[in-house]
UniProtKB/TrEMBL annotation:
GO terms for MF: transmembrane transporter activity
Domain MacB-like periplasmic core residues, every copy: 21-245
ABC3 transporter permease C-terminal domain boundaries: 285-398
GO cellular component: plasma membrane
Official protein name in the record: Cell division protein FtsX
Source organism (scientific name): Geosporobacter ferrireducens
InterPro entries in the cross-refs: ABC3_permease_C, MacB_PCD, Macrolide_Exporter_MacB
Record-annotated membrane-spanning stretches: 21-42, 278-306, 327-360, 366-388
Amino acid sequence: MNFFESIKVAAHAIWANKMRSLLTMLGIIIGISSVITVVTLGQGSRAMIGEEFEQFGVNRVYLSTNWRENPTARDYMTYEDLEAIKRVFGDKILGLSSQFQDSAKILSRKDTINIYLTGVNETYNKIEKIDLIDGRFLQEGDVKGKREVAVIDEDTALQVFGRSNVLGEKILVKTGYRNISLVIIGIYRTPKSAFSNMSGYEQPKNAYLPVSTIEKMYGEGNRVYGVEMNIAQGEDVQEVSESIVKFIERRHGNEGEEKYRTYTAEGEMESVNKVTGIITLVISAIAAISLVVGGIGVMNIMLVSVTERTREIGIRMAIGACRKDILLQFLVEAIIISGIGGIIGTLLGVSFSFLASIFIKIPPTVSLNTIAVAWLFSAGVGIFFGIYPANKASKLDPIEALRYE
């Protein structure tokens, strides 16, 4: 019996027991579809996270005092430190800005609106991708003059004034210390976040104003709480950020005391990708258990099939079929059952992935590698769990098989 005849005989046997074969495939179908769905959603999540970080800026670095190490007054960063960083690392930094942020409320006739006040300097638009739709961003004169001006987002303008063309208008902002009237000099559009679309969570509103203005409001002087930087393309972000920390430590004489720490968007992205990768792997492994259960089901049915067809095996042996022919016949049948289950499971897995991605608003990322691995795995299950029943069938004694009723 050649290979094609084995396929024909196996297909006939499967068709003769359609319901039993379908139930046997069920474990393979569930396992394959589950693995593909989980892996696809995991890859889609990582792609979405990557897009979010690209939008945020992967070369961004945040430098701050490490409060866990109990810094003293001599450890606090100053504006002289920032000027020194610009002189030494100016060719490696596109933008550098001190930052001071606090929550506040806009007092309007209609409503009280929660907002974040973010104090930055005139180079911050080289760090953050700010999509100005009207007016201008902060300028050096605004920062040096401690002007009470602000750049607000379009949604805030619409909520406060009912329109977006509000340049020159004033907003009254209440902070924890005092109220301040800010003149609107620019309107920007906040990019829609995939995470906010997925969760329905509304992004917090934000207004940019000169860092000197907000420091004046809170009575701060030369002390710098946080620094944001955008490292130039082609530079090693981690290496540059570490060099800046060592430079600040030398200026303050606290080398090795870890008084400062940095957060890089690149490092955060790697950490998030690592976590999502581990979660996807663990869930995929759990889903793959059903494949093992499905494989056991294939082996069980094939053993039943061998018992039911013992006399048929004896007749085939009597008319010249050798041990290899019998082995191939039952092995091919097991592979076909697993293969069909794999195909159905793949189609269902891809369908579930697209439906789930639409429902939770994650971009579907079905890779050919995932489908290929799923098919190979299903074929492997058929071979692995089909070998024992096929081997048992091939070792039957022809005389005993012919006597079997």
